[in-house]
Amino acid sequence: MKKLGLYIHVPFCKKKCNYCDFYSVKWDDDWENKYSEAVLDEIKDYKEMLENKYKVDTIYFGGGTPTIINPANLKRILDIIRTLTDVDENAEISMEANPNTLTDENLRQYKEIGINRLSIGIQSLNDEILQKIGRVHNSKEALDAINRARKHGFENVNADVMFNIPEQTTLDIEDTLSKIIESGVTHISFYSLKLEKGTPMYSMEQKNLINMPDEDEERNMYYKGRFVMEKNNLFQYEISNFAVKGFECRHNLKYWNQEEYIGIGPSAHSFMNSTRYSNPSDLKKYCKSAEENNFNRIIQEEMNDEELMFEYIMLRLRLTEGLDTVEFKNKFNVDFFEKYKKQINYLTDNKLIEQSGSIIKLTQRGMDISNYVFEEFMD
Questions:
Q1: Which phi and psi angles does 110 have, rounded to 5°?
Q2: Residue of 351, 370, 358 lying closest to 325 (CA atoms)
């Protein structure tokens, strides 16, 4: 049976962060219940497609803030997934969390229903920065949340950390990462802030109310962060992700390996049968679709072989283990070295990629300008 990932988008937040452009709405008890019923209906809608064909080996609750909803509703969702699909007994079941939602009672219930990986949105341990970017927790709550999760037996804990924030320094990065690592996390997602149109921080920058770090500062923060993590045995396995060996995020690896996954919930994206599609980014429409048993999924892209090959190259080169040209040939029946001879020569001569046997990887310089490298393979 083919392996499959499930992503469940929980679109509720207490307050939207100033940089966030993910689909979310303010939490409301009535809408939580309507949403939960709609999710159950959508999972049922996939039953026939998945039956006896797929084994679910990763489940990921993202948001929004999944930990804002009642654990009983999370249990109902997991119960129906287990009832209607074949879930691997060793499945990775992840959930994103805000620090101030991780109470002792919630953590006990998450453990009981089978959540085995937590991804906690820390972003920074500088309280002034947290306030400026609109986070609803402080540094003490962040560290307390990690410690509380570990006390309740969660060994697989990720911390999201952001750099390239206005007025942030490399010392902030070093301090945040050192304290988080000391708390015992096994994974860190280390993202550069990009201001998206429509967010409060984007508007503030347009009005010259904030100044983003320049390119050199941004790179120095990245280098300092990478150095601190690798010195402490969290090794880079993807451009933005670092983990203790064996704790790489299995769900996210599905994206980078171009494997199939289904997205459940408003705005959730799926990749099945070489097609990318999504649900509307509208909670009311999503719930109405469920009531009518007519999920109005939007086709984003039906990909041909050329598009699939380019995307696979782009995704695999994000990983530090690189692209295996033997696997590429098995997947696409195309010789990588013949098809991309010109690009390989050019990128190798400019020290942007390196080759070891059948493996092609980005160099450190190539990682710094990875989008430029990827564009070369579009020719």
A1: -60, -45
A2: 358
> Can you tell me the distance from the alpha carbon of 312 to that of 322, in angstroms, rounded to the nearest whole number?
11
Residue 174 has φ and ψ, to the nearest 5°, of -60, -45
Burial zone of 294 (CB within 10 Å; 0-12 exposed, 13-18 middle, 19+ buried): exposed
The distance from CA 262 to its chain's CA centroid, rounded to whole angstroms, is: 14
C-alpha torsion sign, points 138, 142, 143, 145:
positive
Residue whose token pair is 């920065």:
129
pLDDT of 14: 86
Q: Alpha-carbon dihedral of residues 69, 71, 72, 74, nearest 10 degrees?
A: 80
Average pLDDT over residues 8-15: 93
Backbone φ/ψ region at 233: left (φ over 0), alpha (ψ -120 to 50), beta: left
Lookup: tokens for 4 = 């499959």
Give the single-character DSSP code of 136: S
Positive or negative torsion for Cα 320, 323, 327, 328: positive
Residue 182 has pLDDT above 90, yes or no: yes
Q: Place 345 in a pLDDT band, splitting at 50, 70 and 90.
A: very high
pLDDT band at residue 37 using 50, 70 and 90 as cut-offs:
very high
pLDDT in tens, 287-304: 999 999 888 899 999 999
Burial class from Cβ neighbours inside 10 Å (0-12, 13-18, 19+) for residue 332 reads: middle
Q: What are phi and psi of 128, to 5 degrees?
A: -65, -40
Nearest by Cα to 30 from 284, 285, 292, 296: 284
User: What is the spatial distance between Cα 262 and Cα 269, in angstroms, rounded to a whole number?
Assistant: 7
* CA distance readout (Å), 345 to 268, 315, 342, 372: 39, 20, 5, 15
* Residue pLDDT, tens place only, 124-168: 999 999 999 999 999 999 999 999 999 999 999 999 999 999 999
